[in-house]
Each structure stands twice: as C-alpha cells, then as structure tokens.
C-alpha cells in the first residue's frame, strides 16, 4: 500500500513540475514573440497560396484556377477603402506588415515602445482575421460556387466546372492567425502583469551617445542602399540594348519585381505570381529600413543582428529566384508576353548581387566588433 502511495505521489509531483514548466515557458516573453513571429511569417506565405481551387474541363484538357484575396478584388473587404487599381498593393502591404511589426517586438527599446508595437501587431492580426473571415463567409454563402470568379478567357474555354473547394492556403492562413493570436495574447499578458518590463532593456542593448559605432555599420548601410537601388530602381533585363549595362535609363526592360513574377510563373503553382508585384518588394524594403534604423539608432542588441542576417538571407534568396526569371526571359520571352529579341541582364542584376556579399561581410565585421566591445562596468551594490 505504501509503495502505491509513493508511486502516486511521484506521478503527481512529475505532473506538477511539468505543468509549471509549461507555464514558465509560455509565460516567457521570448516564447510569445517566437509564436507571434512564426504566425506572421506563415501568414505572409499563406496570403499568396491558393485559398480556393476550381477545376474545369475543356474539350482538350482540364483547366485549374486558384484564388486568393489578392487575385479577385471583390472577395476582399478592403475594396471598401481601395479601388481595383490599388487593392493589390493594399493586400500586398497587409500580407507582409505582420512580419515587420513582429521584428519591432524583438527590439529592446523600452516597455512603452514594445507595448505600442504590440498594439499595432494586434490591430494587424485583427485586420487579417477580418479579411480571412469575410473570404470564408463568402464561400459558405455559396458565392464562390454560384458565380465562379474565373478569368473571361478561361470561362470561354471551359465547358464544365468539375470541382471546386478550399485549398491549403486557407488552412495555412487559419493556422498562422492562431499562432499569431496565441503569441500576441501571451505577450500582452506578460506585459500587462509587468513581468516583461525589466527584461526589455539590457544594459548593453543600446550604445551610448559618446560611443563609436561598431565597425561594419557603414558596410551594411551601403549594402542596403545598393540593394534598394539595384532591385527597386534599376532594370534587371533589357531587349536589343547595346548600351553599357550599368548606365540606368538608357534601355527599357523588366524590373526586378517583373522578373520575379516570371520566375514564380515558371517554377511553381503553389504561390500566386502576383506576390511579386508589390509584396516582396514591400517586405524587403521595409526590412531594410528596419536594419538601417537599428544601426543608426545605435541599437546593439543581438536581435538587431539576427534580423539583419535574416534580411540578407531573404534578399539573397529572392535575388537568386529573380535571376531564374531573367534566364527564362532570355530563352522564351514570348511565353510571358514580352517582346522577342536579344535579352540580357542589366545593371540592376549586377548592383544587387554586388550589394549582398558586401552586406554579408559587413554583418560579419559588425558581429566581431560588437563582441569585442567592452561591457559597461556594473555599479557597486
């Protein structure tokens, strides 16, 4: 009997310790920020994945068409505030805004700044939840079935609508918003209780006004600026152009966003190519602005360097993907509605790929310089 009591007590003790461990883990600000950031990043992808899929048959073959809130303006409640021409840009901004706001949650600049960022993040999550719910109610009410929003050319070719239904993007969006809300609520709970305020600002989280900026700051700054000029301003490809490729404005061609859209059309059907229209540029431009702000506001927290590394990784991945779009254009431009001729890479391509290695070197120098910086002496008790 005593052995049974001892076993029951041990099991109860283990359960209590496990429950307390989960409570401590979920109550930690870092776990809450991680959940919120993961949810925002997942939603940025899910926003451009198929939310609804139609399959129709033609005399020759089956035609598949996927739908998301950025594809049809009438399916998004944002059409109340924006016209058809600007609705795509508005949805692009909404889809990536959560990632940029989540980055602010990791910046150690004081309790007030963190709470303002958390408030903005919660407003963004509420907006995305509203848009997703409106899309779902549209589907439940049968509008997606009674009046399929297919393109006119596909309607003329399609003979019978065989199947339709929700796609994985809708479920990914739901999962992303669930993670987002859990992280935001946990972080709000920590902040409102006041437990996170003492952890927000480390003694060395910000350089003093008289301290020199660490080495590598200028390199990383130049990399972000050169990337912005190369990817956002200069053309990536031109047709029948004999001018020097580094001279901007001498030839007309395709921008980096247009080449990225071609790459997405060419490589995958899992992501709407319209994501390349504005969403990717807004995400990378906003992320680069946060990198520059952290550098010149003298933030020395590790989160700032992690964000810089993630931005460089994302910019490099997008640049490589965009290059495949240029390669596809040079071989079969007519397939993408572009004029035929002799296509070649232009200055934007070279400037972008020159900027990113410069940023990687600059980040490495910045990391070494920050680690070698002497810690502030602790005041005597």
What does this structure look like?
- The protein has a 3-stranded antiparallel beta sheet with strand order 2-1-3. The protein has a 3-stranded antiparallel beta sheet with strand order 5-4-6.
- With 381 residues, the chain is mainly α.
- The N and C termini lie far apart (54 Å).
- The protein is 62% helix and 7% strand.
- It has 12 helices and 6 strands.
- It has helices spanning 2-26, 29-46, 84-105, 111-140, 143-146, 152-157, 168-193, 217-233, 256-267, 279-296, 302-332, 347-372; strands at residues 52-57, 62-67, 160-166, 237-239, 253-254, 343-345.
- The protein is flat.
- The longest helix is centred in the last third of the chain and has 31 residues, at 302-332.
- It folds into 2 domains: 28-201, Butyryl-CoA Dehydrogenase, subunit A, domain 3 (Up-down Bundle); 211-369, Butyryl-CoA Dehydrogenase, subunit A, domain 3.
Helices and strands, with pairings:
Blueprint: H1 2-26, H2 29-46, E1 52-57, E2 62-67, H3 84-105, H4 111-140, H5 143-146, H6 152-157, E3 160-166, H7 168-193, H8 217-233, E4 237-239, E5 253-254, H9 256-267, H10 279-296, H11 302-332, E6 343-345, H12 347-372
Antiparallel strand pairs: 1-2, 1-3, 4-5, 4-6
Helix pairs in contact: 2-3, 2-7, 3-4, 3-10, 4-7, 8-10, 8-12, 9-11, 10-11, 11-12
* Morphology call: flat
What CATH architecture of the largest domain do you see? Up-down Bundle
Portion of residues in beta strands equals 5-15%
Mean pLDDT: 78
The structural domain count equals 2
Topology as H/E string?
HHEEHHHHEHHEEHHHEH
Helix content: 55-70%
Indicate the low-confidence ranges by residue numbers: 17-25, 154-158, 195-204, 377-381
Q: How far from one another are the termini?
A: 54 Å
Structural class: mainly alpha
CATH class of the largest domain: Mainly Alpha
State the major sheet: 3 strands, antiparallel
Gyration radius over CA? 25 Å
Under CATH, the topology of the largest domain can be stated as Butyryl-CoA Dehydrogenase, subunit A, domain 3
Beta-strand segment tally:
6
In spatial order, strands of the major sheet run 2-1-3
User: What is the overall number of helices?
Assistant: 12
């Amino acid at each position: 009997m005593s052995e049974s009591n001892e076993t029951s007590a041990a099991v109860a003790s283990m359960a209590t310790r496990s429950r307390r461990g989960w409570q401590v883990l979920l109550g930690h600000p870092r776990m809450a920020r991680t959940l919120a950031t993961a949810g925002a990043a997942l939603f940025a992808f899910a926003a451009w994945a198929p939310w609804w899929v139609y399959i129709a048959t033609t005399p020759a073959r089956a035609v598949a068409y996927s739908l998301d809130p950025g594809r049809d303006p009438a399916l998004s409640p944002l059409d109340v505030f924006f016209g058809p021409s600007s609705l795509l840009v508005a949805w692009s901004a909404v889809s990536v805004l959560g990632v940029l706001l989540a980055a602010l949650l990791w910046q150690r600049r004081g309790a007030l700044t963190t709470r303002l960022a958390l408030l903005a993040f919660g407003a963004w999550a509420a907006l995305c939840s509203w848009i997703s719910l409106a899309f779902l109610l549209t589907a439940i009410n049968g509008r997606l079935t009674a009046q399929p929003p297919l393109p006119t050319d596909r309607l003329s070719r399609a003979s019978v609508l065989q199947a339709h239904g929700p796609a994985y993007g809708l479920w990914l969006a739901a999962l992303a918003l669930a993670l987002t809300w859990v992280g935001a609520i946990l972080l709000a709970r920590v902040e409102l209780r006041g437990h996170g305020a003492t952890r927000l600002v480390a003694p060395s989280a910000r350089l003093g006004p008289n301290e020199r900026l660490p080495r590598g700051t200028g390199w990383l700054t130049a990399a972000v600026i050169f990337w912005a000029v190369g990817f956002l301003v200069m053309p990536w490809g031109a047709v029948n152009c004999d001018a020097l490729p580094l001279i901007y404005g001498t030839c007309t061609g395709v921008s980096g966003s247009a080449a990225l859209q071609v790459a997405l059309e060419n490589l995958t059907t899992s992501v709407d190519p319209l994501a390349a229209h504005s969403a990717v540029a807004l995400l990378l431009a906003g992320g680069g602005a946060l990198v520059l702000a952290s550098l010149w506001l003298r933030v020395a927290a590790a989160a700032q360097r992690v964000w810089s590394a993630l931005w460089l990784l994302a910019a490099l991945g997008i640049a490589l993907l965009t290059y495949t779009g240029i390669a596809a254009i040079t071989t079969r431009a007519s397939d993408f509605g572009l004029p035929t001729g002799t296509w070649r890479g232009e200055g934007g391509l070279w400037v972008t790929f020159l900027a990113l290695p410069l940023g990687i070197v600059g980040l490495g120098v910045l990391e070494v310089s920050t680690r070698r910086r002497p810690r502030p002496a602790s005041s005597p008790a």
